[in-house]
Specification:
The complex is a heterodimer of chains A (about 200) and B (about 675).
Chain A (H helix, E strand, L loop, with lengths): L2 H15 L7 E7 L2 E9 L4 E3 L4 H12 L11 H22 L2 H31 L20 E5 L2 E7 L1 H34 L1
Antiparallel strand pairs in A: 1-2, 1-5, 2-3, 4-5
Helix pairs in contact in A: 1-3, 1-5, 3-4, 4-5
Chain B lengths: L1 H20 L12 H10 L9 E6 L5 E7 L4 E6 L20 E2 L2 E2 L9 E5 L2 E11 L4 E6 L4 E7 L18 E5 L16 H4 L1 E9 L10 E10 L2 E7 L7 E7 L8 H4 L5 E8 H9 L4 E13 L4 E13 L8 E7 L2 E6 L5 E6 L5 E5 H9 L3 E5 L2 E4 L1 H4 E5 L6 E6 L5 E5 L4 E6 L4 E7 L4 E5 L12 E6 L15 E7 L6 E8 L6 E5 H5 L20 H7 L1 E5 L5 E10 L2 E3 L2 E6 L3 E8 L8 E5 L7 E3 L4 E6 L5 E6 L12 E7 L8 E4 L2 E4 L2
Parallel strand pairs in B: 12-17, 35-38, 37-43
Antiparallel strand pairs in B: 1-2, 1-33, 2-3, 4-5, 6-7, 7-8, 8-9, 9-16, 10-11, 11-12, 13-14, 14-15, 15-18, 16-17, 19-20, 20-21, 21-24, 22-23, 25-26, 26-27, 27-28, 29-30, 30-31, 31-32, 34-35, 35-36, 37-44, 38-41, 39-40, 39-42, 42-43, 44-45
Classes of the chains: A alpha+beta (about 200), B mainly beta (about 675).
The structure holds copper (II) ion (CU).
Chain lengths: ~200, ~675
């Protein structure tokens, strides 16, 4: 592997450490009687309210329409994700140290796959969460589902729900971009090396 | 067609109002004269925007504090202090009823007069508000982070606690003093022997200003025993005069009947100057005597929200004779009312209410006269200073009935004049009158933001008037008291707004809103609630449920652990309660969101409802008298399903064999 690629891969791996401290996604809710808004921050291992009691209050409001309470302890993804990111950090660093090109390729491929599966899974969680309603809920509106958008804003009854990736997700995307760049530089370098070898022979 | 109908209806209504109002005029906004258009723009606060200042009016005979926003005059809240308040259960709930304990027993009412904001370096800081109870002498402290009365201390050896609650520049002390002199200690005497038994006290309450959440902050440091006159108002010095407090006195004639005539005879009464730093020295030297007495000190434990009522049995009494230099009398014309110290602390203005000239004493001259022993007499160990030696000037022909003075940011003084119904502006240094403005009618006190502090903010003045007559739409013989907002930012005073108030505001405090806004609590943290009957979840409420304990005589007490959350109580069905049980509903509001209180009202309960703030636990007592089904419900419209927020208690005859059970939906539990 080209030394610059090794450096970039190491950097990409280190960047991922930040994912443990920054929220990946932010879902915010506003309504006429919530001028200050309610917000939910999704981290690798938990879901927190944007302000101290936001999650508690979101769950309280959700009980009217029969949505299940959001209990971070009961979401399996939040238990697995920290290990997945740890795996990418270790794999990336291993690639940087050994300089094995196969490891870099594997890292980029797995990361892309993980990104796609992760986002799809998040959408699926949102779908189930918004559609799986208690039939005994006080407020029932036929045909109404409360799935928040994946990216963007949507009005759900009196609430305007907005969902956007947050700092952690940008960091992961940046890390992936560095990995891809490392791969490109190395490919260019290999091609040049091959051309030089051909010329020499 | 529809519009026309409404128009004629409005016209009819306007005519009717005109007829009822008599001399009043129903104003059409469109034809507002230029002068009022300008004023309207000054006081209009657009929807959703905040006022610039808070004003805290004492409520007088309602025993409360009225909070308004200025310049709009909008009434924001009433804070119950010395009077029960069925609106939220203050004084009725098991948690708050101890706040109203006194050595005379539990008292549901008092008369509030003089609120005073806490200060740091002579500037109001927005932490607390103190206020006096005039009838059964007490001083209360309100925490402005929650707009709640959190502490009340009773003043022994006092009657008519009027010259209260004035503070020193760093809130070291709060003052209290006797309006009515009485025998100390209390005893049976012929009233006519007034001169033999009458004694006054000046009380200094020490305030604990340390950080942290605790409410037992006030403590009576000492009481100065003074001659038996009527002490009226007070203010403490600041800057150069820090260390001194000044009290007006009248009835130095010592009349006990028809005071109107008999206490108005003398040409001069007194301002009593008390050197509290000197008092501290004397006390440190072991002077003063501990005297047995009885008074209450009540405060809310912030951990549980429960008021503690502590009985106290001793107070330190100091006499001027054993502590020379602690007090001096400054002769002051004609039954002075207010005593007000200029922001620089150099001048002391007496409101000689029956004099047309306003005397201004000089603090510097007072010190000089003390040094020179320039006395004209001595009363019970208190030297009387020579009037001419302490006087800075008399403002000639100020007005009729000057009562009280406050100051603006430019050093000018404003005095309220009761008899001539006006406010007069003058320069206390040059003693020149600058402006006067009529008020409607018979102004008592006035207030300027920070107007009795070392750094007034100026800008506005509010006159608190005693007579209203035709100012508003009439409401029968009993009318609201009027307040008038006056612009004092320019050379000439300008009337801006006239608005009604609650009770009788005797005095007020005004402060820039941001100093109070930044301290606001929005909820009580449920996690930190240490109330012994608090439950933190519905699960816990169902587990603890209902506990019934009976003594050997068969008297039973029932404690119900209950939660409230939008939109149900847990539990909401209770059976097995018997006639005569003393039932306590301990309701915890599980909400943690701003402005989501729940109420709780019990059919037939002889107290009030309780209004429970998010994270708080309050308790309502109820003794059922007849078998039956008794509903309870949430009194505060908390949600779309508020009307569903209700439940039932089944009350059975005393000897009935009904099991004690509680339930919510399909969850049910019974006592073993
Ligand atoms: Cu409610």
């Amino acid at each position: 592997m080209h030394p610059l690629s090794r450096l970039l891969l190491a950097l990409a791996s280190f960047l991922l450490i930040g994912v443990y401290f920054l929220p990946l996604w932010r879902i915010s809710l506003t309504a006429p009687q919530y001028p200050e808004g309610l917000g939910m921050l999704i981290y690798v291992n938990t879901i927190k309210g944007e302000k101290p009691h936001d999650l508690y209050n979101i769950n309280l409001l959700n009980h009217y329409i029969g949505m299940a309470p959001i209990e971070p302890d009961k979401i399996p993804e939040l238990k697995i994700m920290p290990f997945i990111f740890a795996f990418f950090i270790v794999l990336g660093l291993l690639g940087a140290v050994t300089g094995k090109r196969r490891l870099l390729k594997l890292w980029v491929a797995l990361f892309i796959a993980f990104g796609i599966i992760g986002i799809a899974d998040f959408w699926w969680w949102e779908y189930r969460y918004g559609h799986n309603l208690d039939p005994n809920a006080p407020i029932k509106i036929p045909g109404m589902a409360y799935q928040p958008p994946l990216i963007g804003c949507k009005t759900l009854l009196n609430m305007r729900a907005c969902s956007y990736p947050d700092k952690g997700a940008y960091l992961a995307a940046g890390s992936l971009a560095l990995g891809v760049l490392a791969l490109a530089i190395d490919a260019l370098y290999q091609r040049k090396k091959k051309a030089a070898e051909a010329l020499a022979s | 067609m529809k519009g026309g109908g409404l128009g004629s209806k409005a016209k009819k209504l306007a005519l009717a109002l005109f007829a009822v109002a008599g001399a009043g005029v129903v104003v059409s906004q469109a034809k507002l004269p230029e002068q009022w258009k300008e004023a309207a723009l000054r006081v209009y606060v657009p929807p959703g925007e905040y006022d610039e200042f808070y004003v805290f009016f004492s409520g007088g005979f309602n025993g409360q504090i009225g909070v308004h926003g200025i310049p709009s005059g909008r009434n924001l809240r009433t804070i119950p202090v010395f009077s029960v308040n069925p609106e939220n259960g203050y004084g009725y709930s098991e948690e708050t009823k101890n706040m109203l304990m006194t050595s005379h027993g539990w008292i549901p009412w008092d008369d509030t007069h003089h609120p005073e904001l806490s200060q740091t370096n002579g500037v109001p800081d927005g932490r607390w508000l103190f206020i006096n109870a005039n009838n059964t002498p007490r001083v209360a402290r309100i925490d402005l982070s929650e707009f709640r009365t959190v502490e009340i201390i009773e003043i022994p050896h006092s009657a008519g606690n009027h010259p209260s609650s004035f503070i020193t520049q760093n809130t070291e002390y709060v003052t209290a003093a006797t309006r009515f002199s009485i025998p100390i200690p209390q005893a049976d005497h012929p009233i006519a022997e007034y001169k033999k038994w009458a004694k006054g006290t000046i009380t200094f309450i020490k305030v604990d200003n340390s950080e942290g959440e605790h409410n037992n902050r006030m403590e009576i440091a000492f009481q100065l025993l003074v001659p038996g006159y009527d002490y009226d108002l007070a203010h403490c010095g600041k800057g150069p005069s820090h260390g001194w407090c000044f009290f007006t006195s009248y009835n130095t004639e010592q009349a006990h009947t028809l005071l109107e005539i008999n206490a108005s005879k003398k040409d001069k009464d007194f301002i009593l100057a008390v050197n509290w730093k000197r008092a501290e020295e004397c006390i440190a030297e072991g002077k003063g005597k501990k005297v047995k007495t009885k008074y209450y000190h009540n405060y809310i434990d912030p951990k549980t929200g429960i008021a503690v009522a502590e009985e106290k049995n001793e107070v330190l009494i100091l006499t001027p004779k054993e502590c020379p230099g602690v007090a001096y009398y400054l002769p002051t014309p004609k039954s002075p009312h207010g005593v007000d110290v200029t922001p620089d602390g150099k001048y002391i203005i007496g409101g000689g209410k029956l004099s047309v000239n306003q005397p201004i004493h000089s603090f510097e001259k007072m010190l000089q006269a003390i040094k020179n022993k320039d006395f004209v007499g001595e009363i019970e160990g208190i030297p009387v200073l020579r009037y001419e030696s302490v006087l800075h000037c008399e403002v000639k022909n100020l007005c009729l009935g000057p009562l009280h003075t406050e100051f603006d940011d430019k050093g000018y003084a404003y005095t309220s004049c009761f008899i001539s119904s006006e406010v007069v502006k003058y320069d206390p240094k040059s003693c020149k009158i600058l402006d006067r403005i009529p008020v409607y009618y018979s102004v008592g006190h006035l207030v300027i933001p920070g107007g009795d502090s070392a750094k007034p903010w100026g800008k506005y003045l509010i006159a608190m008037n005693k007579i209203t007559k035709d100012r508003y739409l009439p409401t029968g013989p009993e009318l609201p008291h009027a307040a008038q907002l006056i612009d004092i930012s320019g050379e000439k005073m300008k009337l801006l707004l006239d608005f009604p108030t609650h009770g009788e505001p005797h005095y007020a405090q005004m402060i820039p809103a941001e100093l109070v806004v930044k301290r606001q609590k929005k909820i009580y943290e449920l996690e930190k609630n240490e109330h012994p009957y608090a439950v933190k979840s519905e699960k816990e409420a169902m587990e603890k449920g209902v506990v019934r304990k009976c003594d050997e005589k068969g008297n039973c007490e029932v404690h119900i652990y209950m939660t409230a959350i939008r939109s149900h109580f847990t539990p909401d069905n209770i059976e097995g309660i018997k006639v005569g049980d003393v039932v306590y509903f301990h309701v915890t509001n599980l909400e943690q969101d701003w402005d989501i209180p729940h109420g709780f009202a019990m059919f037939g309960a002889k107290n009030s409802n309780i209004l429970i703030m998010p994270g708080e636990t309050l308790t309502l007592k109820w003794i059922p008298e007849k078998p039956g089904i008794y509903p309870f419900y949430c009194t505060d419209f908390c949600s779309a399903l508020h009307q569903e927020m209700q439940g039932y208690v089944r009350v059975s005859p005393k000897d009935a064999d009904v099991k004690l059970c509680w339930s919510l939906g399909n969850q049910k539990k019974c006592a073993d």
